[in-house]
Automatic annotation (TrEMBL):
Organism lineage string: Bacteria, Bacillati, Actinomycetota, Actinomycetes, Propionibacteriales
PANTHER family: AMINO ACID IMPORT ATP-BINDING PROTEIN, PHOSPHONATES IMPORT ATP-BINDING PROTEIN PHNC
Protein name: Amino acid ABC transporter ATP-binding protein
Pfam families associated with the record: ABC_tran
InterPro entries in the cross-refs: AAA+_ATPase, ABC_ATPase_HisP-typ, ABC_transporter-like_ATP-bd, ABC_transporter-like_CS, MetN_ABC_transporter-like, P-loop_NTPase
SMART domains: AAA (SM00382)
Family matches, as SUPFAM superfamilies: P-loop containing nucleoside triphosphate hydrolases
Organism listed in the record: Nocardioides taihuensis
Alphabetized UniProt keyword annotations: ATP-binding, Nucleotide-binding, Transport
Cited Gene3D superfamilies: P-loop containing nucleotide triphosphate hydrolases
Length: 256
């Protein structure tokens, strides 16, 4: 691992010099990222650029070859740390929902609060039911995931992540598997979470959403964060030609 340098004051998450390989294939190289409380950081870039892998590394679902991940002032990339405990303070939502099919929606949502965070059943269920009602899913609490539509399953996955009251929410292309008419519904919920001050890092292909909601946008290309800045800077005046090429392909009018 790289030598730990001074932390960024006030940062909730700091990634420094992160490197991730699959065999000879380098999928992340020299990645630096700082996330402060209440930030909404959108990771954009072509498929295969490393967005999802970066989220999985932050959540300790992948081993890294080099670099440091500091979360809440603690080096969680240290191999001696308890990964389960470190991960318990984050919530992650995947594009394929990953709900347990043999558990009801309510049981999916109370599993981690009860067995990881030590909440009693009644308290965990009360918290879950409040969130399910907030997300329009109260009537599906006792249903199994296969009885829900794709949009409802994704909302249930968001509720499950929020039930642990995470300090950091990681969202991996959560609209990618949805029918187009359901995308706005799920993004509206994420927009509300951002407005409420939830700290998030999300990989997304939804450029309009990133432009409107992000506090910071990071453009990834071939495993590197090639450019980062405010949405206005990235979408209106990118400094890198590769960023401009990408935006010309994905935006109706491209960058100015």
């Amino acid at each position: 691992m790289s030598e730990v340098s001074a932390e960024v004051p006030g940062a909730l998450l700091e990634v420094r010099d992160l490197r991730k390989c699959y065999g000879e294939n380098v999928v992340l190289a020299d990645v630096d990222l700082v996330v402060e409380p209440h930030d909404v950081v959108c990771l954009i870039g072509s498929s295969g650029s490393g967005k999802s892998t970066l989220l999985r590394c932050i959540n300790l679902l992948e081993d890294i070859e080099d670099g440091v991940i500091v979360f809440e002032g603690r080096d969680i990339s240290d191999p001696r740390i308890d990964r389960r405990e470190a991960r318990s303070r984050m919530g992650m939502v995947f594009q394929a929902y990953n709900l347990f099919p043999h558990l009801s929606v309510l049981d999916n949502c109370t599993l981690a609060p009860r067995h990881v965070h030590g909440l009693g059943r009644s308290e965990a269920e009360e918290r879950a039911r409040e969130l399910l009602a907030q997300f329009g899913l109260a009537e599906f609490a006792t249903s199994y995931p296969d009885r829900l539509s794709g949009g409802q399953q994704q909302r249930a996955a968001l509720v499950r992540a929020l039930c642990t009251q995470p300090r950091l929410l990681l969202l991996d292309e959560i609209t990618a598997a949805l029918d187009p008419e359901l995308v706005g519904d799920v993004l509206g919920i994420v927009r509300d979470l951002a407005a409420a001050g939830t700290t998030m890092v999300l990989a997304t292909h939804e450029m309009a959403f990133a432009r409107d909601v992000a506090s910071k946008v990071c453009f990834l290309d071939q495993g590197r964060i090639l450019e980062s800045g405010t949405p206005e800077a990235i979408f209106s005046a990118p400094t890198q030609e590769r960023t401009r090429q990408f935006l010309r392909r994905v935006l109706p009018a491209g960058p100015a």
